[in-house]
Amino acid sequence: MRLGVIDRYRDWLPVTGATPAVSLLEGSTPLVPSRTIGPSLGLGRLFFKQEGLNPTGSFKDRGMVLAVAKAMEEGARVLVCASTGNTSASAAAYAASQRLRAIVVVPAGEIAMNKLSQALMYGAKVVALRGNFDDALQTVIDLAEHYPVALVNSVNPYRLQGQKTGAFEVVDALGDAPDYLVLPVGNAGNITAYWMGFKEYHAAGRCALRPRMVGAQAEGAAPIVTGRPVRRPRTVASAIKIGNPASWEGATTARDESGGVIDAVTDTEILQAQIWLASTEGLFAEPASCAPLALLVRLVREGRIGKDSTTVVVLTGSGLKDPEAALGNVEPPIELDGDARALAKVLKL
């Protein structure tokens, strides 16, 4: 029987007997072995952690379930978050499941329509704020400080506690930690959480290795790479279009303690990786999820990742979250009038 994150990893999470049993059966996402890309790069073993199969289509559900449960334990009835899309969908879904009110603040004109539609369908009150994500986040932080609402962004420590279970699942599936764990870095909570999880499992003797953490930012939204906030972040990967990450320090700690790296890739590299992943592995991930694959390709070609390594790329969200970004880079459907013979001719069969 499948269990949600809280039930599966209760002994590793800050829950009590008073913590409500919140679950949409999140987590337990598959670790898919690469059939084409890994061999093409000459890697020993390459796996894709398919987080797009969580209930709302992204990794955010792992942390959100715990943040919502703890908020309810503390008596909250209204949830609030700022979001570039995935957080809003997750917060709204869990609020709906528990009959809570959800308020979502998004940067105006900067959110993929599919993600926005999720929040609206789950019944959230959505406010489009002029400015970027960082402005929206500061606004909801101020709101939570002065009004009776529970903030469920990744500045909420329970979010990271829930997200660390992704690291547990990787180890449980492989029998040990991989040599490299590669994932996108936007607000930087996920790389912080995964490193937390690997360290906890390692300290408890559940894994012998601790992986090198490799984080990918987009070239137009790479504050950690450049060492300074980006006032107007720009990238096709909307989920990581963040100029001043809330978990900046956690990300650099994960990088430095693990001996890893955080680097930037171009939008062109991201979209090329997205097409390669979908057309050769059958995995359709949103652009932000493909930034780590793009970075992996570069690091392998530069000889900075060993060919005999075990590597896991975390695909943080489904490609159905933001299909518009992908559709401009593939051939459109063929339209014709005719029978099977005409169709065969067009297809050169």
Question: Can you walk through the features of this model?
Answer:
The chain has 349 residues and is of the alpha/beta class. The chain contains 15 helices and ten strands. The chain has helices spanning 5-8, 37-41, 60-73, 86-97, 113-121, 133-146, 157-163, 165-174, 189-203, 223-226, 248-258, 267-281, 287-301, 323-327, 340-347; strands at residues 31-33, 45-50, 78-82, 101-107, 125-129, 150-151, 180-184, 212-218, 261-265, 310-315. The strands form two sheets. The chain has a six-stranded mixed sheet. Helix 12 crosses helix 13. It is globular. The mean pLDDT is 94.
Count, helices: 15
Please outline the major beta sheet. Answer: 6 strands, mixed
Round the mean pLDDT to the nearest integer and report it: 94
Separation, N- and C-terminal Cα atoms: 46 Å
Assembly state of the chains shown: single chain
Kindly name the structural category: alpha/beta
Strand order of the largest sheet: 1-2-10-7-8-9
Topology as a string of helices (H) and strands (E): HEHEHEHEHEHEHHEHEHHEHHEHH
Whole-angstrom Rg: 20 Å
